């Protein structure tokens, strides 16, 4: 989400174009033992209460034998278990979802097509070809140009390998 903001990409435009869904974490099934599941939530675990951190409450409950798995104390993982999502509300710093972290689940080919369209609309030149040689500058060892199988030489300041 931060990358999209830096690139000037409208989040909801990207979601529509890539058929994305929001996700709050990744679930691991049968992780510790058969039948167990655990959600690795994005962002912090639990909400602090004034000067006390959530993990302090969890450690006290664990010492008393009452603690559940740590992911049960994180708002994002609880919401994920209930199939709920709300956009963060940074305008209200007191809100428990003011800075909740999330990610996307999308079709990678649709995302690549979306980025390609945005980049080309911004004037980025896309060159396809199989690289057969990469030549470095003698002065500093940085990449100077690449040679493609069809003989073209491509100079540049930034090269991105999109071969997968």
UniProtKB/TrEMBL annotation:
InterPro entries, alphabetically? FAD/NAD-bd_sf, Flavin-dep_Halogenase_NPB, Flavin_halogenase
Q: Give any GO molecular function from the UniProt entry.
A: monooxygenase activity
One Pfam match, given by its short name, reads: Trp_halogenase
Q: Which domain of life is it from?
A: Bacteria
Which family is it part of?
Belongs to the flavin-dependent halogenase family. Bacterial tryptophan halogenase subfamily.
Tell me the protein's name. Halogenase
């Amino acid at each position: 989400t931060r990358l999209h903001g830096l690139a000037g990409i409208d989040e909801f435009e990207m979601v529509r174009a890539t058929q994305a869904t929001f996700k709050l974490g990744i679930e691991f099934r049968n992780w510790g033992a058969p039948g167990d599941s655990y959600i690795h939530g994005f962002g912090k675990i639990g909400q602090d209460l004034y000067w006390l951190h959530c993990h302090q409450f969890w450690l006290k409950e664990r010492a008393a034998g009452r603690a559940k798995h740590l992911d049960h104390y994180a708002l994002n993982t609880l919401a994920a278990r209930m199939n709920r999502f709300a956009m963060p509300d940074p305008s209200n710093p007191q809100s428990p979802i003011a800075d909740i972290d999330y990610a996307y689940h999308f079709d990678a080919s649709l995302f690549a097509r979306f980025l390609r369209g945005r980049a080309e609309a911004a004037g980025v030149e896309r060159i396809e070809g199989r690289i057969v040689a990469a030549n470095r500058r003698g002065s500093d060892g940085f990449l100077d140009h690449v040679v493609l199988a069809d003989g073209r030489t491509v100079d540049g300041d930034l090269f991105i390998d999109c071969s997968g």
